[in-house]
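Please review the protein record below. Let me know how this chain folds according to its tokens.
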Amino acid sequence: MEEAAKDQPPVGDEGHQALFEDVGKKVESLDQESDVKRDGDDMEEQDQRLVEEIESLCMNCQENGTTRILLARIPYFREIILMSFSCPHCNFQNAEIQSAGQIQERGCRYTFALSESSDLQRQVVKSDTCVVKFKELDVEIPAGRGQLTNVEGLLSALVEDLALQQPTRETLDPEAHAKIENIVENGRKMLAGEKFPFSLILDDPAGNSWIEPSMHGTDKKLSRSEYKRTREQNEELSLVAPETGDDDQNEGSQGEMGKRDQENARNGEDDIVPDEVYSFQATCPGCGRPCSTHMKMVDIPHFKECVIMSTVCEQCGYRSNEVKTGGAVPSKGRRITLEVRNPEDLTRDILKSETCALSSPELSLSVTPGTMGGRFTTVEGLLTQVRDDLHGQIFDMSDVGRRSGDSLPEETRNTWTSFFATLDKALKGEMPFTVTLEDPWAGSYVQSLSAPDPDPQISIEDYERTEEENEDLGLNDIKVDGY
């Protein structure tokens, strides 16, 4: 049965994976084909070659050149298209990368704090919609050509581009020359490892850019967050037409909502009733058209009231679920540690807010705030989602007859295999471990099995927020006196 399944042509998602194999597997297939040819066997050319070649026009000399296209999949990320053009007439060359996947439902923002020379070798995928910022240099690279490179490559290209026109600027604009010369000098010091630390920021409205995570335990240098796109960003991505009738329709819907709110206020119905579902019109973050958002207030025993929100767009199919805590802004953050000792503890309810960080030293697990959004589930459900998300990014689940992650270095593959084995063991209740939720907003919760009495397996610690946490939460801009 298994052998027969191997002979069937790929369909659906399997066919998609057949097109976008890991680069290591493609190279391995090419080596096997070369060995057969060297042995003298006559083998027909395969229908699908490793690299596709297309004759195309050179924009430099208007003669015909060659474009080479490689479909590949990057571990920890997604499918990409690598393209390289060369012209034999004028020797013009060009290379770029494009995302082969769809535009993601949300934009993404990566912040990477570099502190040592090895950080410069982190792999980077910059899509053609991504804006790159080097914070300490106060320099921004606008959206443009997609690249598959590393941090050193991004910074080197920036420094070289700025230094290229410096002799001309010195004559025409000495003031600009002096400012740019300072940036070039600091950039070269960063490349030489003489000016640490500094930060790299990737901001991609399409959500298709990426920075390689660390393979050695907790990666506190790298943080990732997602955000809803603005209408202007949707227009730039061609998801929404610049001029449609949606604006008038939105204004009409908002006007009807305003009248309804005023009517409810006059009738004394402006208070939200717990456990009752409310529906109202909103704007879809995916396509910008009107959609429905459903909201329900839930009172969690021995915690506080929470709002569960669900958005569904019938136009583009966008769906999202969010959990937000209500009440006043707490004066301190909260750190909750749960000791998981048996399978029963895996069934505890857990609320992880979007500002909460999740960690487990026994599992070598660390999830930064904003990565998973708000979740109301169980301990098992939360860890299962973490495992599935990571495994889907790192290993090719549809491989047949191959080891998963063949394109990864041996040491890296063994590290990830050991990590997932430990995580699976914990999900089966075969080992004790701890889970720590650190939330500066104090909006996370773990179910107590002995409430209202203290639970011996749960420790709760309130702590003073740092200045950086207050800034991230926008609390430094709130004025409660003299406004």
